[in-house]
Input
Amino acid sequence: MPGFDLAIVGAGIVGCACALEAARAGLRVVIAERGVVGGGTTAAGMGHVVVMDDSPAQLALTAYSRSLWRTMAPELPAGVEYESRGTLWIAADDEEMAEVFSKQTTYARAGIASQVLDPRELAEAEPYLRSGLAGALLVPDDGVLYPPVAAEYFLSEARRLGVVLLSDHEVVRCGKGRVQFANGTSIEAERILLASGAHIDLLPSLPIQKRKGHLLITDRYPGVVSHQLVELGYLKSAHKLTADSVAFNIQPRLTGQLLIGSSRQYGDESREINHAILRSMLERAIEYMPYLKGLSGIRVWTGHRAATADKLPLIGPTADHTLFLAMGFEGLGITNAPGAAVLAIDALLNRASVIDAAPYLPSRIQQEAVHA
Output
């Protein structure tokens, strides 16, 4: 097999977006996937395209990436199910309502459109929510999509530009310009981009932790929910680095189904359903929307997110000049895929980026971890 300019490890939504961006830059690209395209962390996600503001760097990348999604939205195939549903950040009490106003100020400074809803306006926007909520912040330009099909779309466009897909190829080692497969074969490339989602075995010393999550999808109930609904307490849940947590997070699908989350667990690498966590997650959802209690769930699944301590992904070169990373997106891999792809290929080609790439560089972590 001839040498390539770039070998990408992992055909999730981030890897596939990187393959497309690299192909558009004229690079000879091969992408290796041990399972199904978009079938790992990508398939386990909700598909919420959301601007988050935990830090200025997180705000910059999610806002940039959301703008890319919105630009490409008219070209996306129907199967991607992209919709600008908007996010409603729901405040349960006056304390959380103060956070609504703070969040609105942050978004306004960044040029992100948002609108504060009082209790009456919230009830009109989402009549199935319980009464007594304090209000919400509507972020109208956030979206939802179906992640596995989005990954397939990126890859199909990349393959149309000449990208080679190696399916059923499990990578056992990579670095120094070589990718070694479990079947005994290998390929050479000038650069390697590791985009393997929660599969961090290839660089086990990276400071990335797996966080397990549960999702449930219901039967079809069109019109029950109109926006992506997230309790403001979700942010507290996402910040917990050690304890298990759940939060009200529900998404309407184009099919009329409702996708209900969310949970976060450390230290459980199994794919088995934790019924105590699932019960707690659903009780939390019913607390915000009692109507859910009478609906039928048809499937539950789990997945793992790859999280860094500072909640920012690792995008860019490592101490091995042939090895680049696009990993550690935690729950924002779907949102950040297009922006991360641009940053990753910019770094690979020494191009200037639209946003400051420094906060995401792997060099911010201990270099010995990357070497290990």
About this structure: The first helix runs from residue 13 to 24.
